[in-house]
Amino acid sequence: MNIAPLLLYVAAAIGYGWHFMKRSSRGGRMATSFLVAATLVHTFIIGMQTTEIGHLPLVGTTGALSVFVWLSSIAYLYTETTSNERSMGVFIAPLLVALQIIPTISRYEVTVRPPVLESPWFVLHISSLLFAYASFAVACVIGITYMLLFKELKAKRVGFFYNRLPSLQILDVMNMRAITIGWLFLTIGVAVGGVWALQAQAEFDDPRVQAMSVLDPTIFVALLCWVVYSFELYARRSVGWTGWRTARFSIIGFAIVLLNFLPVGYFLTRTHNF
Question: What is the residue extent of each domain of the chain?
Answer without folding.
Answer: 1-113, 117-274
